[in-house]
Design goal:
Helix content of chain A: under 10%
Number of strands of chain B: 13
Oligomer: heterodimer
Structural class of chain A: mainly beta
Distance between the termini of chain B: 53 Å
Radius of gyration of chain A: 18 Å
Strand content of chain B: 25-35%
Helix content of chain B: 10-25%
Strand order of the largest sheet of chain A: 3-2-5-6-7-8
Structural class of chain B: alpha/beta
Shape of chain A: elongated
Order of helices and strands of chain B: HEEEHEEEEHEHHHEHEEEE
Order of helices and strands of chain A: EEEEHEEEE
Shape of chain B: globular
């Protein structure tokens, strides 16, 4: 579950953002794994997200990143078989977060670079400097 | 397939495309290391010079006759290749094969995995669960794997006007997923008709590409059912098309065009204190 933080990373007191909404917009989405002849269509996220309501402890949604398993396995198979000539690829985008301003227009408060990187034997998901990996 | 994409982008109307399960070795070439391994073959490229007049300014309506002109051009430029037809439904236009090469290279009547008869038990599931059940039913009926390639299907579908969090099946409990579920099933019918029925309630107009991976061994062949939004050129605030760094038009997905109001998201239950 994602939670809002105040500037500097401090946890906001309960109810500071309760009832407000957070929206995510995706830009510059690039599916670097896709190749001409791929059985998967190029990845495309819906944007903007619907407004996510913020709860009393500043939680606003399960804002996960990553790609579906079938997609990862397909490109891993293409690399293993030599169907594609690259040994690694990534799907990436820039995620811009905005919060409503009590009746005013939403204001942008953060932006992240997200990427999913795939090799024949591994996969990792990155948001800015944080990442998680597996196989 | 590229022609279907181009027409969709120009007219913002679904033009679906379906591959047959490729049987003839002559339709593909060895792209990988060993042709007896899975995913080592790639489909040979085909070329098409499009007929003139395929823009809304020149031909305002995209209909079966217009797509038929494109297919006629394709057949005349690729005389010995797979042949296709166009049909029309309540969703849009559908390009499907009529003739393809059998294992010996003879042109014979063609079908696709969406031509098989299936039954999907009626049940309450998320949209992606219904699509997965449809793919599983096709795999069982056809004996060739149909992989669900509907990336972000729940998010684009927005069942009941609600968009679930990504990976909802992993991060939400069954009870938390309930608002995003609905009852659907297919009594015995052609898989394509079942898919049309499933897409009837989608909040986004969705199209599909059924793309098949050739392979030397029949057990390694599979297809991916890509259920995707229509992609159209992005327009800037000044009314001009947005270009990417390479000077090509930026494309964007048409989302939630069937909803009477913008989609919503539900608050998550607060974590335990």
């Amino acid at each position: 579950m994602a939670t809002l933080q105040n500037a500097g990373g401090a946890a906001p007191p309960n109810n500071q953002y309760n009832g407000r909404t957070v929206t995510e917009a995706i830009a510059d989405e690039t599916d670097g794994c896709w190749f001409s002849g791929s059985a998967f269509a190029p990845a495309s996220l819906p944007t903007p997200s619907p407004p996510w309501p913020v709860g009393p402890t500043s939680e606003y949604g399960a804002d996960l990143i990553g790609m579906p398993v079938a997609w990862v396995r397909y490109y891993q198979g293409a690399m293993s078989s030599g169907l594609v000539k690259y040994s690694g690829c990534s799907e990436s985008d820039t995620q811009t977060m905005s919060i409503d301003t009590c009746g005013g227009p939403p204001t942008q408060y953060n932006s992240h670079f997200d990427a999913v990187s795939v090799t024949a034997t591994s996969v990792s998901a990155t948001r800015d400097t944080a990442s998680v990996s597996g196989d | 397939m590229d022609a279907a994409l181009l027409l969709e982008a120009r007219y913002a109307k679904p033009v679906t495309y379906e591959d047959p399960v490729w049987l003839w070795r002559g339709d593909s070439y060895l792209a990988g290391y060993d042709e007896n391994l899975p995913m080592a073959l790639a489909l040979k490229g085909r070329s098409l010079t499009l007929p003139k007049g395929l823009t809304p300014a020149e031909t305002p309506t995209l209909n079966a006759a217009l797509v038929g002109r494109v297919l006629d051009a394709y057949h005349s430029q690729n005389a010995t290749d797979t042949r296709f037809k166009v049909t029309e439904s309540r969703l849009g236009l559908h390009i499907t094969p009529t003739q393809f090469h059998d294992a010996q290279g003879q042109l014979v009547p063609a079908s696709t995995l969406l031509d098989v008869e299936i039954r999907v038990p009626e049940a309450r599931r998320m949209a992606s669960g219904h699509l997965q059940a449809l793919c599983d039913a096709v795999t069982t009926s056809a004996g060739t794997s149909l992989i669900n390639g509907g990336l972000w299907f729940d998010e684009f579908y927005a069942a009941g006007g609600l968009v679930p969090p990504r990976f909802a099946t992993k991060v939400l409990t069954e009870k938390e997923r309930e608002p995003y579920t609905f009852v659907w099933g297919a009594t015995t019918m052609i898989a394509r008709d079942a898919l049309l029925s499933l897409l009837d309630s989608s909040g986004t107009t969705l199209s599909w590409r059924l793309l098949c991976q050739p392979s030397a061994k029949p057990q390694d062949r599979f297809c991916v059912l890509n259920v995707v939004p229509i992609r159209v050129p992005a327009i800037g605030a000044d009314g001009k098309p947005l270009l990417d760094a390479a000077g090509k038009p930026q494309m964007q997905s048409v989302s939630y065009d069937r909803l009477p109001e913008p989609p919503k998201s539900l608050p998550l239950p607060a974590p335990d204190q």
